[in-house]
Amino acid sequence: MAMYSTRQILTTCVVVALSFYLSHGRENPSFKIKAVNLGGWLVTEGWIKPSLFDGITNKDFLDGTGLQFKSVTVGKYLCAEAGGGNIIVANRTSASGWETFSLWRINATNFNFRVFNKQFVGFGTNGNGIEIVAVSSTPGRSETFEIVRSSDDSSRVRIKASNGFFLQAKTEELVTADYAGESKWGDDDPSVFVMTIAGRLQGEFQVTNGYGPELAPGVMTDHWRTFIVEDDFKFISQNGINAVRIPVGWWIASDPTPPQPYVGGSLRALDNAFVWAQNHGLKVVIDLHAAPGSQNGWEHSSSRDGSQEWGQTDANIQQTVDVIDFLAARYAKSPSLYAVELINEPRAPGASLDSVTRYYKAGYDAVRKHSSTAYVVMSNRLSSDDPRELFPLASGLTGSVIDVHYYNLFSDVFNSMSVQQNIDFINTNRSADLSLVTTSNGPLSFVGEWVAEWAIQGATKEDYQRFAKAQLEVFGRASFGWAYWTLKNVNNHWSLEWMIKNGYIKL
């Protein structure tokens, strides 16, 4: 067994530490990233670029659209009794979770209906097989329906089952698929329902499955080619930004032939981003924004129907680690790689602390297998009461970073705030929040998402400037840095490009 002196050990530690800093341009340990997110590029978010969905046939009916159906004869809503695993009834006077049917799109005209407890609507096995139930955990032919809309009123629909007949509400307790013939769409027709769209998703699953395998590849390739270009990296580098945070989806690791409905090509776009970053002196944070099964049930994690199923099995966690391994191996040697974010916004309680910490440790090891210098970013769980719950893990891992997202939005508490109250909230509350996760001997802190937007109506340009300035000052105290959400957005204040060009933010 070799013996080493204290001096030799200390010298080795110093060399390793210097290597870590120097390889990241951290000759000055106080270096921090000032980044912008490239949201809506390699992971679709419809609100960022709504026109991406314009060419989809029957685009009202995308995966995850929540539909509610009120019988015109009974006057009450269809309902999956007990939330699923039982019959479909038509006896509810108001609509909520059990009365909302989530679409799985097969094509432009055929759909499955998924209910609250995740079963699919279909035929029952009792009697003559026409009674409608929600008991199957997987959809098949008997769980496939067509939605026929009235040409005079698109909210009036009939639902055609796979046996060729239409659903009808015979009574409040009996819904069957045995109505034949045409309809005059009157209130005396038990096969007519008034449809309400209760919610919709516009993520990567929706856009690719919406266009289908023939059209989606061309649409997405054109989007990736034009939405973010090298001139954007040039603009970023010339306006005080030194890094980009790039959201990616788990399917990128299977490029060029990812599982349907996803299409190949996003990996080539990410390769281009690394070249452009190097050309313009920018660092890159790769952010796994969408994990298999969805870590939060939202469109920006590519949930099919609002379900959150990530982290529930060891196989799912390992699949996610494999994505990180793929990305780290591919880009470890790029001088632009600055950090790998293991997952974005896992949401409690669905994403348990145990699952998240097990995954973070395995993901950290996957990055370190290929890079001893890239930072490893760990997003705090949303809806958790403890902003420091990752500290026991992260504090023992060199080059670890805790990511927090701060918005003066998405909570009723902000709806009645004035301009000054919003600014005071940043200076007081957000400052205190950030201090909790910014320590001298723990992981670094990163405000990975923030925006100069709020619930204020009619705010002046000066109001926005003051709000942005307050956030820049407070979030500038994060020991790793910050990233604005996002570079481009049809909603102006969410676009850092627009904010800079119009004088709202100056860096």
Automatic annotation (TrEMBL):
Gene3D superfamilies attached here?
2.80.10.50, Glycosidases (3.20.20.80)
The reply on keyword Signal is yes
An individual GO BP term: establishment or maintenance of cell polarity
Residue ranges constituting the DUF7910 domain according to the UniProt record: 58-197
Q: Where is the Glycoside hydrolase family domain?
A: 223-489
Q: What CDD domains is this protein classified in?
A: beta-trefoil_FSCN-like
Q: Which Pfam family, just one, is annotated for this protein?
A: Cellulase
| Coiled-coil segments | none
Q: What SUPFAM superfamilies would the database entry show?
A: (Trans)glycosidases, Actin-crosslinking proteins
**Keyword hit for Hydrolase:** yes
Q: Single GO molecular-function term?
A: actin filament binding
Annotated signal sequence is 1-25
Query: Where does it sit, as one GO cellular component term?
Result: cytoplasm
Q: Which UniProt keywords apply?
A: Glycosidase, Hydrolase, Signal
Q: Which family does it belong to?
A: Belongs to the glycosyl hydrolase 5 (cellulase A) family.
Q: What is this protein called?
A: CELLULASE CONTAINING PROTEIN EXPRESSED
* Origin species: Salix koriyanagi
